[in-house]
Amino acid sequence: MDALYSLTLPLVESSSFDFEKVVCSHGFFMMAPNLWDPVNQTLRRPLRLLSDPTTIVTVQISHQDPSSLLVQVLDTNSSCNTFSLSEQDQNHLLSQVARMLRISEMEEKKVREFHRMHNAAKNRGFSRVFRSPTLFEDMVKSILLCNCQ
C-alpha cells in the first residue's frame, strides 16, 4: 500500500532506543487497534487528526533510520477525494507517536537514570514501556484489563 504522506520523527540521541523492545514491552501492542508486524518490524494503528477529530488516519510506524522513525499515513476515513494533511495535523500525529513510544528529552533522561541504577535492565535492553496515543485510551484499557479473569 502506498503512503499518502511520509513523516519523519527524529529520535532523541540515545543508545537505549530499540523500536521492537519499546513496542513489545507491554501487552497493549497486541490489543486493538494496534497491529504489530514482527516480520517487517512495523506498528500499524489509527490516529485522530487535531483539525477534525472525526477524521481517522491509519499510520504505519517503522524504524528504518537509526536517528528517526518513519510514520506513513496509509489511508483515511475522510470522504474527501483530495485529502490533505496540514502542518498542524502532521505535528499532532508525530506527537501522538512520540507519546506512544516515549520519545522526548525528559523520557531519555529517565531512561539514563534508570539504567544507571539498574545495570541488568540496561544489558537486557529494557527502557521504555509502550502506551497509547492518549491518556484516555490508556485508562480505558487499564480499567478493562483489571481482574479480567
TrEMBL record:
An example Gene Ontology CC term for this record: nucleus
A Gene Ontology biological process term:
base-excision repair, AP site formation
Q: What name goes with this protein? A: Uncharacterized protein
> Single GO molecular-function term?
8-oxo-7,8-dihydroguanine DNA N-glycosylase activity
Alphabetized InterPro entries for the sequence: Oxidative_DNA_repair_enzyme
